[in-house]
């Protein structure tokens, strides 16, 4: 801890300002908002665009069976899938823009979109 004695008042002020700026920008970094629609794809092709304000259920036929997608109270989920591991079903309810559930064995995906475009590290 000898290095702490080397800090001068200006160093402490700069460190404090840096921490405050980082904390202040956190809410803006994850501000995607709630989704407005769900895009359902099969094999990369758009099968349906579902309005999240309407409760509905659709069946998507894939290579290994039927995937059921459900919309309820402004959120969407994969209700059932013929895949063995059920990863997309375990993803649960999706409601924020940018969230996605991928059923890889059946080549079906459900992505939530909203007003603001959500970006991830692959988009850069």
UniProtKB/TrEMBL annotation:
Annotated InterPro entries: NusG_2_sf
Keywords attached to this entry: Membrane, Transmembrane, Transmembrane helix
The keyword Membrane is assigned to this record: yes
Pfam families: NusG_II
Transmembrane domains' residue ranges: 12-30
Protein name (Swiss-Prot/TrEMBL): Uncharacterized protein
Organism placement in taxonomy: Bacteria, Pseudomonadati, Pseudomonadota, Betaproteobacteria, Rhodocyclales
């Amino acid at each position: 801890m000898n290095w702490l004695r080397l800090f001068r008042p200006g160093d402490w002020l700069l460190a404090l300002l840096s921490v405050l700026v980082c904390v202040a920008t956190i809410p803006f970094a994850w501000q995607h908002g709630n989704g407005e629609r769900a895009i359902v794809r099969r094999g990369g092709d758009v099968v349906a665009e579902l309005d999240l304000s309407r409760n509905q259920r659709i069946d998507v036929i894939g290579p290994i069976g039927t995937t059921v997608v459900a919309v309820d109270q402004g959120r969407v989920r994969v209700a059932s899938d013929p895949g063995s591991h059920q990863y997309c079903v375990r993803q649960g309810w999706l409601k924020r823009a940018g969230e996605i559930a991928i059923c890889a064995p059946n080549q079906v995906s459900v992505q939530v979109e909203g007003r603001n475009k959500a970006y991830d590290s692959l988009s850069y």
